[in-house]
Amino acid sequence: MSRLPETITFDPVQELRMATATGAILFDAARIPQGDASLLDANRWPALSKHGRGAVRDVEGSFGRGVLRTYRRGGLMARVNRQHYGWVGEDKTRPFCEFRLLASMRAQGLPVPAPVAAGYWRSGPLYRAAILTAEISDAQTLAESITSLMPNADAWSELGATLASFHALGICHADLNAHNVLLDRDQRWWLIDFDRGTRRSLDINWQQSRLARLQRSLLKVGADRIAGWSSAWQLLIDAHDHALRHLSTMRTSSPRPQA
Known about the structure:
This protein has six helices and 13 strands. The strands form three sheets. Strands 1, 2, 3, 4, 5, 6, 7 and 8 form an eight-stranded antiparallel beta sheet that branches. The N and C termini lie far apart (about 40 Å).
């Protein structure tokens, strides 16, 4: 039977807000003593590398190595307006929601990157945005490592249990795919890119839909053409379901605080 995922203890995010001429930024004061909106300007950085159609670049500063991501639309909307979103209030902007979700997940010991800074620039009814997160060192995406991982039963079981640790806390990743799952040198799994991620009430339907999305992504990168694929995926599902049942039981059986 698969083991439950290890809970990680992270330093708390010290959120501060700074207004700018056309918007605002949030930043972690433990990593950046003073707010600086230029941290989110892609033109400031000599990029170590670019990926994701240029929307994501690896950068390095006083905070260490990080990943700067400019928010860009996908699908049909990208043909009309790639970088702008409708204004619905500061607390509902995509960067602020993602920054705070990452901070809260790390407070619960979930393996996600640390938010460094996030901000938006408003122009009338529209805004554009960016977020800077800490790099997960020496890690490869699931898509990059799938061939070498296929015979590793423990890795697939641990990935399933890791996904269950998110689902047990109601974390719904909006775009769970093989490029947003990382495995580091210590064989620990991480999830990245929580744009549009949410906390939801526990329900098997959305949890299963996330797994189905990951499966479709793996098939797109050719997982089914690698020997052992079916067994590996079943290991992931079995470990996920076992861990989710156990974690859910732990939550319901935990003593409630006295009124």
